[in-house]
Design a protein that fits this description.
With about 220 residues, the protein is an all-alpha fold. It has helices at about 30-35, 55-70, 75-80, 85-95, 100-115, 120-125, 135-150, 155-160, 165-170, 180-195, 205-220. The protein is built from eleven helices and no strands. The chain is globular, with a radius of gyration of 30 Å. It starts with about 30 loop residues before the first helix and ends with a helix.
Length: about 220
Amino acid sequence: MFNDGDNFQPSSVNINNNSDVVPPPRPPPPPEHQQQSNHFRPRLHIFNGHDKSVTIENWLKLYESTANRYNWSYDEKIDLLAEYLDKDALNTYISARDSGDWITIKNKLITRFGVRSIRPSVEFCRLKFNHVKNVDEYFESKKRLAGLAGFTETQAVELMIDHLSDELNRCFLGHQVNTYCEFYTIAKTAEQQLPRNDNHNNNNNQNKNQTTERSLLSLHC
């Protein structure tokens, strides 16, 4: 029993002083393109170099497509590649990583795990430029095959120019080109300036290249 003069303060009742505090509203979700940030790691098949269910060429196409979809920067595309490699493929990546160059890393993986041509020099000489492919694909394929065939950089560049379409070939007149970098810079600039013609036929280049091809193959076949 409590007396009238007693002040009743129920100490057993646990009052949460924060019960009346309204939490701040959650911020709205970021736009979709920000949700897919540069650090987002989508699911992708891990390539180890021994899985025959997918070729390294097709796997790299899928990886590049994924990098473009999620807006990875050039450096992020190189760095995040290690997240999707294992075993021998990862070792190959590590040995090429110091170059800091995507094309070099990509070509080393293709050279190590791709289906090798018995005579890469023949395949190199048969690969002609056409406007169905772009300069980037032509350049990467030619450079890879030149490495397999054992061509020097100067030899490879000279033949890469010879095997271009007539329109692109004329853009090299008056230029002394000895390196891959010089070739790519001129060819890429010319491609951007020339109108695209998907139906272009490169048969006009065939006769011009036959003499060079025969002399080259006599050295490497």
